[in-house]
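BUG: 3D viewer hangs when loading the predicted structure for this chain

Environment: internal workstation, default settings.
Expected: structure renders.
Actual: progress bar stalls at 90%.

Input used:
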Amino acid sequence: MNKEQSKKKVNMQLIITLGVMVALFILFTILRPAYAGFTNIMSVLLSTCVNGCLSFGVTFVIISGGIDLSIGPVMTLTGVVSGVALTKWGLPLACCIPLGLLVGVLCGVLNGIMVAKMKLAPFIATLAMQMIVKGLNLVISGLMPVYFTSDPFYQKIALGNVFGIEGFYSAIIVFIGVCVLAYLILHKTLLGRYTYAIGSNREAARLSGIKVDKWTIVIYALSSLFAGFAGLIMTSRLNSAQPQLGPGYETEAIAASVIGGTSMAGGEGSILGVIIGVIIISELSNGLRVMAVSQEWQSVIIGAVLVASVYFDQLRNKKKA
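Structure tokens produced before the viewer hung:
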């Protein structure tokens, strides 16, 4: 398949996923007219902010041919570390937030080292990191939620009203900034090009002079950085860091990425597609909740959507082969 054919295929997939997103919105609006209300739309976008940041990070890893199962607990760890630094160590908020993000990035670096240098399978390496970070969250927090009430500004990072519009949350503006950052990195930088190259053919990338191990570590570190952004938004929403929160978020992030056209075989994906995929997941979750579908069945439906997305991705790869 030449470059022009590949571009047309990607564009067609974006059109299809965009159509699904619009169709879901129309369907839920017909079933529950309140779904299209301003308050509910803002609620959908607010939940999209957290899952979107996680999805951007895991997308880089999947495109490179890997997987990251640790992003949920890493998201929580950034909040826990920031909260402890603020409430127990007495550091100013301007130092606490970068510290939390730095600790998150360190987790990504360790993931990358285990995959690139220790040659562990990405699934095993990041699953181990998930378990380690889950334990650290409980140890560092002392098994208790960490509250940010000592600094009232913190909650405004996510829940401040933009332009004075009640319900138009500042988290949406933060997320737009993260979207732009993810797009520029993946589509306009050397790191983005190397991410595609490593995922398309790891050995060919190595033979062409790309330092595959080095860039693999950078890619996993970037995944954890985006998880840190998700943690910033999540803890600001809750005005606290909940140490047991996090596991399970990676499932929805991977689902959103795959629905948005990221290939589990590596080498394919786009930030625009991921944004659409994240909105589809948020629409499903919110729409099912508005229709009073229980949380258990919401998980079943989203899991089924993930299975279907991966299956169609496999069919797509077979045709391409």
